[in-house]
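User: I'm new to structure prediction. If I give you an amino acid sequence, what do you actually give back? Let's try with this one:
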Amino acid sequence: MASRPGDDAGSGTQPPPLDDVDRAIVAVLREDGRISMRALSARLHISRAGAYLRVQRLEETGVITGYTARVDPLRYGYGLSAYVHLTIAQPAWKPLRARLMTIPEVEHAALVSGDADIVLLVRTRDIAALRELVLNSFQSMPEARSTQTVLIFDELGRAP
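Assistant: Good question. You get back a string of structure tokens that encode the predicted 3D arrangement of the chain. For your 160 residues, that looks like this:
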């Protein structure tokens, strides 16, 4: 449903230096990724050419990794959300991560510290679809050692 941050995780590259204008551009684009360059430059009081060049540089250096639509999961037909804590065989993260991100119900995956190795944010149509996902997708993976599912009753606001 969204771009997948962390696809380059562990590459060892240093982030590019960003100034206040770069950070302001990113903040505006996070609010409205469809804003025109004209409106962006006017809002930040910079030239249109400067806005184009800076956005292009932010894209080329990987600061901006893509543009997405924020979707209301309920209206999209995914009325049930949950966090699935997955314990895996070590070192299974690298081969498993690509497979997890091909599952349409997985909105976000994170390698974490603590009792679980991976936390997945999943969205499904209903409890039957969640059960199917956990039992037949996650628990059938040879790398999976155990799962714990935490239902989400309500979500606080989303950061743009």
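You can read the tokens as a compact description of the fold. Here is one thing that stands out. Residues 1-10 have pLDDT under 50 and may be disordered.
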